[in-house]
Structure formats: structure tokens, C-alpha cells
Amino acid sequence: MTDPTRILLADDHVLVRRGVRLILDNEPDLTVVAEAGDGAEAVELARTHRPDLAILDIAMPRLTGLQAARQLIRLQPDLRVLILTMYDNEQYLFEALKSGASGYVLKSVADRDLVEACRAAVRGEPFLYPGAVTALIRSYLERVEHGAAVPERAITDREEEILKLVAEGHSSKEIADLLVISIKTVERHRSNLMAKLGMKDRLELTRYAIRAGLIEP
After folding, report:
1. What is the CATH number of domain 157-211?
2. 198: which DSSP letter?
3. HTH luxR-type domain: from which residue to which, for each copy (predicted)?
4. In CATH, what is the architecture of 5-141?
5. Which end of the chain is more exposed for a tag (fewer CB within 10 A), N or C?
6. What is the spatial order of strands in the sheet that 5-10 belongs to?
7. What angle do the packed helices 90-98 and 130-146 form, to 10 degrees?
8. Confidence bin at 198 (pLDDT 50/70/90)
9. What are phi and psi of 105, to 5 degrees?
10. 0.85 exceeded by the pTM?
């Protein structure tokens, strides 16, 4: 027999983690080796435990699941990532796929889909719930109809980090301390963000961060 797939589970809700772990640990070919309460902790634990698969919530403190996914895949290119979320949202779905995730699973049907999604990811196959497949097909057909390519991300990873922290209410000094950069650099990134996104103040940035899944409403 092959060794079970080693899983890192990240969600900021303890009860959700407990429920998901029960589902996974009941399977002989799957085992949870580490649990994280936010995306940054997930990245730290991955360095220690070297999991085969990471299951990440989208909306988490410090780093979102999407931010963590990008960092984890850079850290461990052979790592498979699944996004487990309550959001049946096309924008989040596309961002998850662009981040390198192998699948997108809804929490509402995790008891039905999650084990299958884990096994598909380990085989190197994508897993999407039926509504996600419909969204991808619709998007593809719309792009073909208008002759458009898939748009690139509007902002850089660093700008996204700063956007999340701004939206969470941190001051420029606090952001500078958290990211170990100068206040001047924070202000420059913040100015670039507003220019790129066509926004005028923190409130508009916060609304954008909610739409992008960086923070919860």
C-alpha cells in the first residue's frame, strides 16, 4: 500500500476544521498532518510538514487562501492545492484557478465532494463543482464571442497584501511594521493601488477587497 496523502488544512473557524478533519481522517488514503488558523500560518506549517495537499479557505486573516496558495506553490511547486469555501462566486473561482489551485469545493457540499476532490488533485486532475464548470464554459464562450483574452491580475502580490491590510483598518505604520518595509513604501503602493483601481479612499479600497475575497463583509 502507498502512504496516505498528507494534508495541510487551513481555515480560521475551528469548528469547520474539526468537521473537515473528521471527513478526511475517516479515509484510509488521506491524513491531516497540520492545521492552520490563517494563510500565513499555513505557509509556515508547510515549511515544516511538507504536505502533499493543502486545503485552504478563501477568507482568512493575515493571508487569504488565494494569497497563501500562490506562496505555497512557489515554496513547494509539486504541492496540490484545493480551495474550500462558502462562496459560490465566479470571481473567486477564477482567482483560485489563476493562483494555481487544482480544485474549488463548496463547504455546503464538502461531505459529498471533498474526498473526491482530494483524490483528483493527487492524481493531477482538476476538480470543480457543476456550477463552476458552467461558469468556466460561459466565460470561455463570452471571450470567444468578443475576441478577448483572459485578463491579467490588476495588482501585484505586494499591492494585494497592502490592500488587505488597509481594508482591515491598519495604519501605514502598522502595515510597514507587519511587512518589514518603510512607511514611504507603503504609501507608494497605496497610491499605486488607488491609481490602478480608479479609487479615491480607504472605503472604496475596502469594498474592492471584499469583492476580491481578501476580507469578509
Report:
1. 1.10.10.10
2. T
3. 148-213
4. 3-Layer(aba) Sandwich (3.40)
5. N
6. 30-36, 5-10, 53-56, 80-85, 103-106, 127-128
7. 80
8. confident
9. -120, 135
10. no
